[in-house]
């Protein structure tokens, strides 16, 4: 890939070493243009029948594009507003309660913790273990595993042995989809929830949920919207779709869908595998340089996240922001975290390391 040409698509990089895609990815000019065009059309043409036809067409295209990223069938893909909504939709739709045990890790994102707490309130047992031990913790009483594909705190990968456990596995793919290659068949998971706004550089309020066709039969639609129906015109005689769209978000805005679709088209046109490989390589370089500077880097895999210890992460994050470096601190931990994308280059890493040295001085 032409790294410099790819970088030029993201205006924020003209002024900021942007290393925060694990929260929200940078927005490309082409994505801004796509969203603006849809808003202008709504302003001048109104929101009549053609508006809803356009929304439907954009949603169809985005569903197919997301399915391509996850390597699943379109019928197995629901469109959501976030990873958290996908996780919640599966855990809520399973109706787990007394007698059910969910195995998870002790380092999950609130997007997993919230639905787990709701399941516990319904009577399910939650068993939390260290991330590396999740597969080994599955026992005779386990109903489901729910954990991250890529650990949001450290960048570690979920144990490969999860593919072999005898219960369904629900993966939080917020730090996986778009960041590293994802093949849900190869992972062997029953469901995989992801975000549109992070590594796919899409709009806030977009995401995806893969549910394996056989597992989908067990997941009820708890908040079905218009697209969940097989035929919404039948009133109380209506039935829900047998496809994953029964778990779709109730509504997604036309302009947001267009932004996410344009961003994903840019990534795929550049070569998503090349984008992911460059990001992982740069992240590895950053981890090595941080260790070389004497900093303690959290255990990680060949992913796009790099976390390291800091005496005062929140204060250091603020000082780095003043130096034109965008990263985040991870509340409740000693870590600062950089999310490294293919849009970054060595100058961004240099700027981060120089700003860290200045903050420490």
Structure description:
The protein has two domains: 3-31 and 272-360, Aspartate Aminotransferase, domain 1 (Alpha-Beta Complex); 34-268, 3-Layer(aba) Sandwich (Aspartate Aminotransferase, domain 2), CATH 3.40.640. The radius of gyration is 21 Å and the shape is globular. It has helices spanning 3-7, 29-45, 49-70, 83-94, 110-121, 184-187, 213-216, 254-270, 272-292, 313-322, 346-360; strands at residues 17-18, 77-80, 101-105, 125-129, 142-148, 169-172, 191-195, 207-211, 305-309, 325-326, 328-329, 335-339. The longest helix has 22 residues, at 49-70. A seven-stranded mixed beta sheet has the order 2-8-7-6-5-3-4, sandwiched between helices. Strand 6, helix 6 (184-187) and strand 7 form a beta-alpha-beta unit. The mean pLDDT is 97. The protein is an alpha/beta fold.
Describe the secondary structure blueprint for this structure.
Elements: H1 3-7, E1 17-18, H2 29-45, H3 49-70, E2 77-80, H4 83-94, E3 101-105, H5 110-121, E4 125-129, E5 142-148, E6 169-172, H6 184-187, E7 191-195, E8 207-211, H7 213-216, H8 254-270, H9 272-292, E9 305-309, H10 313-322, E10 325-326, E11 328-329, E12 335-339, H11 346-360
Parallel strand pairs: 1-10, 3-4, 3-5, 5-6, 6-7
Antiparallel strand pairs: 2-8, 7-8, 9-12, 11-12
List the keywords:
361 residues, alpha/beta, Aspartate Aminotransferase, domain 1, Aspartate Aminotransferase, domain 2, 2 domains, seven-stranded mixed β-sheet, three-stranded antiparallel β-sheet
CATH class of the largest domain: Alpha Beta
Average pLDDT across residues?
Answer: 97
Q: What is the architecture of the largest domain at the second tier of CATH? A: 3-Layer(aba) Sandwich
Largest sheet: number of strands, sense, barrel closure: 7 strands, mixed
- Taking all Cα atoms into account, the compactness measure Rg is 21 Å
Number of helices: 11
Distance linking N and C termini: 38 Å
Estimate the helix proportion, in percent.
Answer: 25-40%
Write down the domain tally: 2
């Amino acid at each position: 890939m032409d790294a410099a040409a790819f970088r030029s698509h993201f205006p924020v990089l003209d002024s900021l070493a942007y290393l925060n895609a694990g929260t929200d990815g940078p927005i490309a000019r082409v994505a801004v243009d796509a969203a603006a065009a849809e808003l202008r059309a709504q302003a001048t043409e109104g929101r009549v029948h053609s508006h809803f036809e356009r929304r439907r067409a954009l949603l169809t295209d985005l569903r197919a594009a997301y399915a391509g990223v996850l390597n699943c069938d379109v019928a197995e893909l629901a469109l959501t507003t976030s990873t958290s909504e996908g996780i919640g939709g599966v855990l809520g739709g399973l109706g787990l309660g007394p007698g059910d045990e969910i195995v998870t890790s002790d380092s999950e994102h609130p997007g997993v913790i919230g639905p787990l707490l709701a399941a516990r309130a319904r009577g399910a047992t939650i068993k939390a273990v260290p991330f590396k031990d999740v597969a080994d913790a599955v026992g005779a009483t386990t109903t489901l595993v729910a954990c991250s594909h890529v650990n949001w705190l450290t960048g570690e990968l979920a144990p490969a042995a999860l593919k072999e456990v005898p219960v369904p596995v629900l993966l939080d793919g917020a730090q996986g989809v778009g960041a590293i290659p994802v093949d849900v068949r190869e992972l062997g998971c029953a469901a995989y929830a992801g975000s549109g706004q992070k590594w796919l550089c899409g709009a806030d309020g977009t995401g995806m949920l893969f549910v394996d066709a056989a597992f989908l039969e067990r997941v009820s639609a708890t908040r079905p919207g218009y697209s969940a129906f097989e035929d919404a015109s039948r009133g109380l005689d209506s039935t829900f779709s047998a496809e994953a769209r029964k778990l779709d978000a109730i509504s997604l805005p036309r302009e947001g869908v267009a932004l996410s679709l344009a961003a994903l088209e840019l990534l795929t046109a550049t070569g998503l595998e090349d984008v992911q490989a460059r990001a992982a390589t740069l992240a590895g370089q950053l981890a090595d340089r941080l260790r070389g500077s004497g900093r303690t880097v959290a255990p990680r895999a060949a992913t796009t996240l790099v976390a390291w210890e800091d005496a005062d992460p929140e204060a250091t994050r603020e000082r780095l922001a003043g130096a034109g470096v965008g990263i985040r601190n991870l509340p409740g931990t000693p870590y600062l975290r950089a999310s490294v994308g293919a849009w970054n280059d060595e100058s961004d890493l240099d700027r981060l390391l120089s700003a860290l040295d200045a903050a420490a001085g």
